[in-house]
Amino acid sequence: MDTGSVVLIIVVAVVLLAGIVFAVRASGAKKKERDRGRAAELREQAAAQATGVQQREAHAEDASRAAERAREEAERLEAEAADRAAAAERERAEHQETMRAADELDPDVPSAAPTTTDTEAETRTGTHRATPAESSRTE
Questions:
Q1: In the prediction, which pLDDT does 139 show?
Q2: Is 73 part of any domain?
Q3: SS3 letters for 11-44?
């Protein structure tokens, strides 16, 4: 091989290497540009999602506040129910005491007369026992 051939081979090799380097750089630049475009699309998509996320968070907070109000209302109603039940029990006890006092004063009621609670139970079951005063009236 002569010097001219060697120089020609070296020049061709350098040109080929330069072409490869240029192609790699151009391809890298195109990839970077595509990546920038895709990143911009993703940012736009994320911005659109952010609005939806904020709305969903606001709805969740509203629901949480509504649930808390409902819990507070339920507690208030439970307390009111307990107060009413206690008042009813006091009234029942007062009623029974009044009935007992009336039975003690009534000369027609024997001293061993059933208590008001017994009388109420007999009325519900239909097993009422006649007092001596009631027995004498039916005869």
A1: 44
A2: yes
A3: HHHHHHHHHHHHHHHHHHHHHHHHHHHHHHHHHH
